[in-house]
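FORM 12-B: Structure-to-Sequence Request
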């Protein structure tokens, strides 16, 4: 129930700007647009800029940290409750009961749970994912989400193979994939139309985080053709 609070909607409404639920993302190189699938901090940053996106992201993290931390303090010898609290908050964030089950993709909510469960993972996993995406696979999708994959071996290593924590990491990945089904459907649609690259670039160029990812990719020498457009 706490995870279902949509700070994306609250902050954009208080800010008096465009309704984030009606955000349209352009297709690169055309006048065509499509409605944003995710209602989260990234969408808010498109409407309000970096400052607004950061405020929403921090609030989304806090809304998961507080109940998860309370559960951890109340049941210190039973980590399963802490893990369930974090997962429950994530589910509420992605499918909020107050907004017809239409929420964000879950990055900030996942970070909120990790801050309580294993704070070191908040730094280690994204950094490892960044290196993996930039220098090993050299792919923007890997750059964006591989840190979630890394959480599985990370918790295996950190907990000595505790199945509860490994199951938690696997659950995060499954829930995230389910949350991304609308985005995957859009990608398939534009791939069939021969516009997959334009769709992807339009999305990335529409928000600060995406533009940052493009800059990093171009800085290490790939996507040179797209950088000239």
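FORM 12-B RESPONSE
SEQUENCE OUT:
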């Amino acid at each position: 129930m706490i995870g279902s609070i949509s700070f994306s909607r609250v902050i954009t409404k208080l800010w008096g700007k465009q309704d984030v639920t009606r955000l349209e993302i352009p297709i690169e190189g055309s006048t065509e647009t499509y409605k944003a699938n995710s209602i989260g901090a990234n969408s808010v940053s498109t409407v309000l800029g970096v400052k607004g996106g950061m405020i929403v992201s921090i609030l989304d993290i806090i809304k998961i940290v507080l109940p998860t931390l309370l559960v951890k303090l109340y049941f210190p010898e039973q980590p399963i409750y802490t893990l369930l609290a974090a997962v429950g908050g994530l589910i509420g964030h992605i499918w909020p009961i107050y907004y017809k089950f239409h929420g964000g993709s879950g990055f900030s909510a996942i970070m909120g749970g990790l801050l309580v469960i294993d704070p070191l993972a908040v730094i280690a996993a994204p950094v490892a994912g960044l290196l993996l995406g930039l220098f090993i696979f050299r792919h923007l999708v890997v750059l964006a989400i591989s840190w979630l994959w890394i959480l599985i071996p990370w918790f295996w290593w950190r907990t000595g193979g505790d199945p509860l924590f490994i199951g938690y990491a696997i659950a995060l990945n499954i829930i995230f994939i389910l949350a991304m089904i609308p985005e995957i459907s859009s990608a398939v649609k534009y791939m069939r139309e021969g516009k997959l690259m334009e769709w992807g670039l339009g999305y990335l160029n529409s928000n600060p985080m995406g533009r940052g990812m493009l800059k990093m990719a171009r800085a290490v020498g790939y996507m040179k053709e797209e950088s000239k457009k």
